[in-house]
Amino acid sequence: MKKYMMIVMLMTTAAVCMAQDRVPLKLELPQAMFVGTPKPIKTDNLESARKGNSGKRSPLMVPKGVKNVAMDKDVTGSDNMPIIGELELITDGDKEGSDGSYVELGPMKQHVQIDLEEAYTIYAIVLWHFHSQARVYRDVVVQVADDSDFITNVRTVFNNDHDNSIGLGIGKDKEWIETNFGRPIPVKGEKAQYVRLYSNGSTSSEMNHYIEVEVYGK
């Protein structure tokens, strides 16, 4: 019994130390710039409205010392000739919603992929699809892997494709309305070099958009 109690105490102490070593993830947010008349958004998998409907979420807790390891890293994708913009905009640090700050990919299922250049332990991924208009992007799936072909050690860290529309499995995460707050996704310390993000159009059109993706790790 004493040995069991000692193990429990050690585990509790370790958990407390780990919790104390966590801090809120601080994000530099772009200005809000909703334009036009909001359109009704109809979707069966939308998350519940947050208090005040401001789009603001509770802080995401991460270990001290994490940084955005995706800044200025190489981006490729399923549509290497975007309709608007260039893929490099996705990691350039510009999160504004104005023209020249986002990339528009073709219709239906598309993905973008970030090469972090080396393996990092990832604790959070934050993405901004498009925030100058309220809309919901469909079938958002975020995966990490050890290789660029996404064959080795592929892990799904977010999936709101509730009906398996794009064939990557049924997800239990919820869709959200785009705002300048972006979408912080917690990641449980997954070590990987490559990050891939899927989407399948939005409630506004069949096109896919990205303003910025940040990957926080060590």
Q: Which shape, going by the Cα principal axes?
A: globular
Q: Over the alpha carbons, how many angstroms does the gyration radius reach?
A: 18 Å
**Sheet of most strands:** 7 strands, antiparallel
Beta-strand content: 25-35%
For the record, the count of structural domains works out to: 1
Instruction: Give average pLDDT, whole number.
Output: 89
Total of DSSP H or I helical runs spanning 4+ residues: 1
Low-confidence stretches: 5-17
Report the span from N to C terminus.
39 Å
Structural class: mainly beta
Helix/strand order? HEEEEEEEEEEE
Q: What is the CATH C level class, in words? A: Mainly Beta
CATH superfamily: Galactose-binding domain-like
Which architecture would the CATH scheme give at its second level?
Answer: Sandwich
Structure summary, number of beta strands: 11
Topology, please?
Layout: H1 2-20, E1 22-24, E2 61-63, E3 67-68, E4 74-77, E5 103-107, E6 109-128, E7 141-145, E8 155-159, E9 183-200, E10 207-210, E11 212-217
Written description of the protein model:
This protein has 218 residues and is mainly β. The chain has a single domain, classed as Galactose-binding domain-like (Jelly Rolls, Sandwich), CATH 2.60.120.260. It is 9% helix and 34% strand. It has one helix at residues 2-20; strands spanning 22-24, 61-63, 67-68, 74-77, 103-107, 109-128, 141-145, 155-159, 183-200, 207-210, 212-217. The strands form 3 sheets. Strands 3, 4, 6, 7, 8, 9 and 11 form a 7-stranded antiparallel β-sheet that branches. Strands 1-2 form a two-stranded antiparallel ribbon. Strands 5-10 form a two-stranded antiparallel ribbon.
